[in-house]
Amino acid sequence: LIGRLMFELPEEMGLIAIAVRQTQGKGRGGNVWLSPMGCALSTLHITIPLHSNLGQRIPFIQHLVSLAVVESVRSIPGYEDIDLRVKWPNDIYYSDLMKLGGVLVNSTLIETTFHILIGFGFNVNNSNPTICINDLITRFNKEEGTELKHLTEDYLIARTVTVLERLIDTFQEKGPNGILPRYYKYWVHSGKQVHLHSEEGPTAWVVGIDDYGFLQVHEEGKGVVSVHPDGNSFDMLRNLIVPK
Asked: Which CATH number characterizes residue 179's domain?
């Protein structure tokens, strides 16, 4: 629906579709994503000028969205220590243990304007099959003796879009350096040792992400190299960067 509408609307007009549940959601690599009620699910349309800081680094958008989801919770007073994090390139995690959601970005360049469709979904209120944000809040209350309220899907979608708008403005004004300190505050990879290509592959250490949003690793004896998310998956369980 949004794919048909987005070229008909004035560029300054935003557009978002919100689903209560998904039966035909799309994931990376053509995967089908099923999402029950209790998840925050939406597709957002935005436009980005090609000749702008973000327009010249368009892969960075997925990182801004992932950060916006995490900050939608952790920027609420009292909720700063809820252990919600970003995993490169496009996942939302509880610590470095369990996936809570993800982001998928598609872009179309028309003349000098990128039309961006951002799909994001994260588990707010379902304890199964993994864990949800309200579970983390319940656990935090029990451990810290606090009484933080559970959050709702619509509230967090609204906060995510609001935070994203501010992150985009900051990126357009200051470039990657205006965003990366906030991103690294919440990501799960700092200093992780990995092997490239296979379990017997060369050893490398995660350094960060470059100005275009690609993962940077320091390969033993070769210095820093970038790994592109379209061709690689960061496997947290085996501690590898492997070709998809």
From this structure: 3.30.930.10
Chain length of the chain:
244
Contact 87, 187 (CB under 8 A): yes
The model's pTM is 0.89
> Position of tokens 């949800």?
132
Question: Is the pLDDT assigned to residue 231 strictly greater than 80?
Answer: no
| Domain co-membership, 134 together with 153 | yes
- Contact (Cβ atoms closer than 8 angstroms) between residue 228 and residue 214: yes
Residue 52 one-letter amino acid = S
pLDDT in tens, 128-146: 878 899 999 999 999 999 9
What is the domain extent for residue 214? 192-243
